[in-house]
Amino acid sequence: MICRLTGRVAGLNGEAAVIDVGAVSYQVLVPRSALADLERLSGNEVTLFTIQYLEGNPAMGHLVPRLIGFLSEAERDFFSELTKVKGVGLRRALRAMSIPAHQIAQAIERGDDRTLGTLPEFGPRTATQVIAQLRGKLQRFLRPAATPLPVAELTEPQRIALEILVHWGDRRADAQRWIAAAVAAQPGLSEPEDIVRAAYRVKHSAP
């Protein structure tokens, strides 16, 4: 089971991202809400939190391995919750996630069937069903998940902090996510040491 994939964003192909890992390129299906971020991260290393499955008809003997990827563990976990709803399969849930997961979770928790009904692959009936089954279970998804910043967008102190974290053995893509979350929460961080400490607080507070 491939549960995490780290590599360079080589490009986008419709609803999929192409991720280069060494000499191998993986096509990873992604939610529509992630396409803009992945376009922004083109050429940079990124970590996708993945779900692997087989698509096709077992009776016909033709099964194709597929990967679905998300920019955060929280989005992957939310997707798994969404697919527990009867009639919401993997592809349908993926297309429905055309807005960030936390916004969908907020709509479910407040019973906003109008917003849910406008999502691709959804409608009034599915929106009502999703609310009935998931409302009250999504509190941990109500806050936006941090996504990594392209290296070119990091300030000099943030770049130094990134290299410190990588030198200490952390994955570059993980360190980028922690730094992105840290500076989003505390925009005034300006010293590498302070950024490193804040990034580690993000690391250790992650579920």
Which strand order spans the largest sheet, edge to edge or round the barrel? Answer: 3-2-1-4-5
- What fraction of residues sit in β-strands? 15-25%
Largest sheet: 5 strands, antiparallel
Structural class: alpha+beta
Measured on Cα atoms, how large is the radius of gyration? 18 Å
Shape: globular
Averaging pLDDT over every residue, what do you get?
90
Uncertain runs: none
Helix content: 40-55%
Order of helices and strands: EEEHEEHHHHHHHH
Q: What's the end-to-end separation, in Å?
A: 21 Å
- Helical region count? 9
| Extended strand count | 5
Task: Give me the secondary-structure topology.
Elements: E1 4-13, E2 16-21, E3 24-29, H1 35-40, E4 45-57, E5 62-70, H2 73-82, H3 90-96, H4 101-109, H5 113-117, H6 124-134, H7 156-167, H8 172-185, H9 192-205
Antiparallel strand pairs: 1-2, 1-4, 2-3, 4-5
Q: How would you explain this protein's 3D organization?
A:
With 207 residues, this protein is α+β, with helices and mostly antiparallel strands. It has helices spanning 35-40, 73-82, 90-96, 101-109, 113-117, 124-134, 156-167, 172-185, 192-205, and strands at 4-13, 16-21, 24-29, 45-57, 62-70. Strands 3-2-1-4-5 form a five-stranded antiparallel beta sheet. A hairpin with a 2-residue loop joins strand 1 (4-13) and strand 2 (16-21). The chain is globular and about 50 Å long. It starts with a strand and ends with a helix. The mean pLDDT is 90.
